[in-house]
UniProtKB/TrEMBL annotation:
Pathway: Quinol/quinone metabolism; 1,4-dihydroxy-2-naphthoate biosynthesis; 1,4-dihydroxy-2-naphthoate from chorismate: step 5/7; Quinol/quinone metabolism; menaquinone biosynthesis. It catalyses: 2-succinylbenzoate + ATP + CoA = 2-succinylbenzoyl-CoA + AMP + diphosphate. HAMAP family: MenE (MF_00731). Converts 2-succinylbenzoate (OSB) to 2-succinylbenzoyl-CoA (OSB-CoA). It is an enzyme of class 6 (ligase). This is 2-succinylbenzoate--CoA ligase. Keywords: ATP-binding, Ligase, Menaquinone biosynthesis, Nucleotide-binding. Belongs to the ATP-dependent AMP-binding enzyme family. MenE subfamily. Gene3D superfamilies: 3.30.300.30, N-terminal domain of ligase-like. Its EC number is 6.2.1.26. GO terms for biological process: menaquinone biosynthetic process. It comes from Pelotomaculum schinkii. Residues 367-438 form the AMP-binding enzyme C-terminal domain.
Length: 451
């Protein structure tokens, strides 16, 4: 039997997510699958477009027991970006929280049901979910995650952070990100509770923490930084922090407040966390991102004299390969730069080259640059990250163009998500280049001060 059926039998009255018990979730998922059949009967792959909600969790689980691949669409994408992703992946059916596509409510209200055979156990080789991640080439790549990767992930994560029967994990990170989705799957596997909220709201999160309604939290540093000074009392057992650079002062505040911060490092391609540790236990390793989870191997490629080089990962949580591309054999190059110390702790010195991480979202400069270069009046451009107190980083555009700022923004706003828009535009007569003509991005912020 699959995880959901198992928990509904063994823990029927235990809360699963929000007010619903495991038994109630199982019954609703089973009923929903019967209603979904007429919408998806000829489809191998469908998409979900929604912010966090009980509904999107139910739809995801219903599609899983129907053994249908699910693309999780980022709700911050533009219509143009969504259309491109659906077309590339040949997806014709999309369910959404609103009426943008087939609404959840339409399915719930449908009178037509079909008795169908639901999955017993989840097939390890079955693709459960697809998440698109932009590449440094500017073209998104599709990451297919199979049940075998999720099996390995939940077991390794449980051994790393432990399990308590009273655990209640707050899902404030979106389910269309791997860090949000894995909260649901870990809790399903562990038979523990999840509290789903639609988005990050400081007052709501602080109340849940203060009331001891939740004891586990996954969060990105920019979010934690906005609430850390206001946390007075708590019953937190695990605070998993990752997704971007974690400032040392933030970690130190957590330690002073007796907040059990677990630093973590991973990506969509590795089914979220690959490296984790509780800073309480190793305060002398505060700059590290942790030790590899069970069966995760880290290798440093082309190390320099200090041992720093490209971080490579091999693990059962690693994807088989991007859709339509070569299968990965052996280690996967994260394109991050780091090193391992004598105790096996991993340190990341720099994020992947050029990637901007803003509020937990990855922004890939070349994607924006490619769009800009398609305009006849953009002669040269470079997008790089500038430090920002609220978001961690924000994109800045350096450009050689006859277009004014308004014209550039009007051009971009229709083509890329709002969070990808440059926060500042700096006009230059020419961008700095090396002898071969390559734009020297590293020189831009050094040579040109941006207020």
């Amino acid at each position: 039997m699959n995880w959901l059926e198992k928990q509904s039998i063994e823990k029927p009255d235990k809360k699963f997510f929000n007010s619903l018990t495991f038994k109630e979730v199982y019954e609703r998922v089973t009923d929903l699958a019967k209603r979904l059949y007429l919408y998806v009967k000829n489809q191998r792959r469908v998409a979900l477009y929604s912010n966090n909600s009980v509904d999107v969790a139910l739809f995801f689980l219903a599609l899983q027991v129907m053994q249908i691949e699910v693309l999780m669409l980022n709700t911050r994408l533009t219509d143009e970006e969504i259309t491109e992703q659906l077309k590339t992946l040949n997806i014709k059916v999309v369910f959404s929280q609103n009426k943008k596509f087939i609404s959840f409510q339409e399915v719930y209200q449908s009178d037509q049901k079909q008795d169908i055979k639901l999955a017993g156990e989840f097939n390890p080789e079955q693709i459960a979910v697809i998440m698109n991640t932009s590449a440094t080439t500017g073209k998104f790549k599709s990451v297919p995650l199979r049940w075998k990767q999720f099996y390995a992930h939940v077991e390794a994560s449980q051994k790393s952070v432990g399990i308590n029967e009273e655990d209640n994990w707050l899902m404030v990170l979106p389910m269309y990100h791997i860090s949000g989705l894995t909260i649901l799957l870990r809790s399903l596997y562990n038979g523990t509770a999840v509290t789903i909220v639609d988005k990050f709201n400081e007052e709501q999160v602080l109340k849940l923490i203060g009331d001891a309604a939740i004891n586990m939290l996954s969060i990105v540093p920019t979010m934690l930084n906005r609430i850390i000074d206001r946390i007075e009392r708590h019953n937190l057992r695990v605070v998993l922090v990752g997704g971007e650079f974690i400032p040392e002062p933030l970690v130190e505040k957590c330690l002073r407040k007796n907040i059990p911060i677990y630093k973590t490092y991973g990506m969509t391609e590795t089914t979220s966390q690959s490296v984790t540790f509780c800073v309480f236990n190793y305060p002398e390793k505060i700059d590290s991102v942790g030790v590899p989870l069970e069966e995760v191997r880290i290798s440093i490629k082309n190390p320099d004299e200090d041992g720093a080089g490209e971080v490579l990962i091999k693990s059962p949580m690693l994807m088989d390969g991007y859709l339509g591309m070569e299968t990965i054999s052996g280690f996967f190059n994260t394109e991050d730069i780091g090193y391992l110390d004598e105790d096996g702790f991993l340190y990341i010195l720099d994020r992947r080259e050029n990637i901007i991480i803003s509020g937990g979202e990855n922004i890939y400069p070349q994607e924006i640059e490619n769009i800009l270069y398609a305009h006849s009046e953009i002669f040269e451009c470079a997008v790089i990250g500038m430090e920002d107190k609220k978001w961690g980083q924000v994109p800045v555009l350096f450009v050689v163009s006859s277009l004014n700022e308004d014209a550039i923004y009007k051009y971009l706003v229709k083509k890329i998500a709002k969070y990808k828009l440059p926060q500042k535009i700096v006009y230059l007569d020419e961008l700095p280049k090396n002898p071969s003509g390559k734009i020297l991005k590293k020189d831009l912020l050094k040579r040109y001060y941006v207020d």
